[in-house]
Amino acid sequence: MYGLVNQAVEDFVRRGFGDGVWKRIKDKAGVDLEMFVSMDSYPDDVTYKLVGAATEVLGLDGATILEAFGEHWVLYTAQEGYGQMLSMFGSSLEEFLVNLDNLHSHVGLTFPALRPPSFQVERVDSGQGLLLHYRSERTGLAPMVVGLLRGLGRRFSQEINVLQVGHRGVDDHDVFRIDYVGAGALPGQG
Ligand code: 1MF
Asked: What share of the chain has pLDDT > 90, as a percent?
């Protein structure tokens, strides 16, 4: 994955747990790079090893870390020069999700090593909720998608509940149910 992802992992750990913890995680992962270059493409293995080492050092399970990291990714990219790009692809949660494949196509035009996942949105219960279908070349990242959705909820001030309702391996692909909560619910539910 592009170095931007590993930079976001580093930022997440250092802000949350400090520089010393980051050094221990990097050591345990066997990553002896001094820093990541955002535009360089790294083997996925680097990211998976960092997450694996973080589970040991932090004593948290992988799903918990991936979820927290997904939430951080939305904030991090907005701060690291991608805020304008994110704004171009939607001003509400639903609009952004509908446009997410377009966002990845846009990034992929400039950075051809991108291997983007694909997201498909389905409105259910006359607009009270959404089903999000997630397909990826990569495995094991479904918890990160839960976090990404929570981060987007915060970005758009939309209170949501997220539940994974379909599981790759059991089902054809991962599916997430998103429910709007309270006064922030979208119009259209009657
Ligand atoms: O293949 C890749 O390198 C890759 C990197 C990041 C593929 C996808 C992504 C983004 N994606 C990460 C989870 C991937 C899970 C999977 O592969 O199954 C998160 C997608 C996403 C979901 C919900 C909300 C927001 C999301 O991301 C927004 C986004 C997506 C891509 C970028 C930034 C924000 C991006 C921008 C520049 C990139 C790479 C990704 O490359 C750079 C970086 C710096 C300088 C030049 C190029």
From this structure: 93
- What are the backbone dihedrals phi and psi of residue 141, each rounded to the nearest 5 degrees, phi first? -100, 10
Q: Rounded to the nearest whole angstrom, what is the distance from the C-alpha of residue 74 to the centroid of ligand 1?
A: 10
Structure tokens at 149: 């959705």
| Residue ID of nearest Cα to ligand 1 atom 12 | 5
Beta bridge partners of residue 118, listed in sequence order: 135
- One DSSP character per residue, 76-119 reads HHIIIIIHHHHHHT-SSHHHHHHTHHHHHHHHHHH-TT----EE
pTM of the model: 0.95
Place of tokens 């680097």: 46
**pLDDT at position 48, please?**
98
Q: Look at residue 27 and tell me whether its pLDDT is greater than 70.
A: yes
